[in-house]
Amino acid sequence: MPGQTCRPEVLSIALIALLIYAATVPASGASTKEVLEGLTIEPHERWTTGAVKGWSAGDCIPFRFTVENRGSGPETAIFRLAFDHQRDGAIGIVSFESFVVPAGNIDGPYFQGGEGYYLWNVMIPADTTYVLLWCARTSEEAGSWSGASMHVSAKNGGSRDVPIMIKDLGDPRPPCRIVGPESVCEVRPMAIFSYGDEPTNLEFAWRLSSSNDDLGLWTESSIEIDWSIYPFGKYLLSLDVYKDQGGVLTRIESCCREVLYVESPAAFIEMVD
């Protein structure tokens, strides 16, 4: 009726109903379908929503998160990509690496308690599927996590979770090897350094540094360095080895060695002493 005012209890009921409705609306929309998978290598290599097996401590395990928008309009979402970081003083997953982002942006890592996470803020157009790729870098002590107690998850309202089973600590990987001289003399300044194992289907990143300055970068399995362009002294030659695993280029090995560049064999003896 004209002039009639709403009672406070009616307003309260309406407000509560509105809040309940807002809380039940899915953040990514009802028209999206999301699947989180990890790359297992046991008993054979395949993508799975179940337990990921066969990886060793220190490996970077590939993951992919598929988001499909089946609706007629765009959907905006913020996905929380989480991982088990620390438990009882032991680091499980250090961080995520090697993101391949189809759209939107990735922020992080953030840490809360024993969990780490990233945020993927993305708008998915209508009738579009996006696949986000990355790898989860496990620590060298990740083998102390028993069974499938380590997890990676994707959350946006609901949660999709993939457990990881790391091999025992007693199954170490062979060390990375650099083949080449430990010292180079100015009378023969050209020197070749090589990756010590089979290089097929691998990618390489060599770096030469001195006093924390990068002096060179090479991307072949075997490299030749002309030392005459550098001053005499001690250098660190490092190598990162990468492999494409499930579409994610992951670092599988790292190693380094010191190299001396000297004026003469006599000078080398003096520097060693």
Write up this protein.
With 273 residues, this protein is mainly beta. It folds into two domains: 28-166, ntegrin, alpha v. Chain A, domain 4 (Immunoglobulin-like, Sandwich), CATH 2.60.40; 178-272, Immunoglobulin-like. It is built from two helices and 21 strands. The strands form five sheets. A six-stranded mixed beta sheet has the order 3-13-12-5-10-9, with no helix packed on it. It is elongated.
Give structural attributes.
273 residues, mainly beta, Immunoglobulin-like, six-stranded mixed beta sheet, five-stranded antiparallel beta sheet, 2 helices, 56% strand, disordered N terminus
Question: How is the topology of this model organized?
Answer:
Blueprint: H1 8-24, E1 32-40, E2 46-48, E3 52-55, E4 60-69, E5 75-84, E6 86-87, E7 90-91, E8 93-100, E9 105-112, E10 115-124, E11 128-138, E12 150-156, E13 158-166, E14 178-179, E15 183-185, E16 190-195, E17 202-210, E18 213-218, E19 222-226, E20 233-245, E21 248-262, H2 265-272
Parallel strand pairs: 3-13, 15-21
Antiparallel strand pairs: 1-2, 1-4, 4-11, 5-10, 5-12, 6-7, 8-11, 9-10, 12-13, 14-16, 16-19, 17-18, 17-20, 20-21
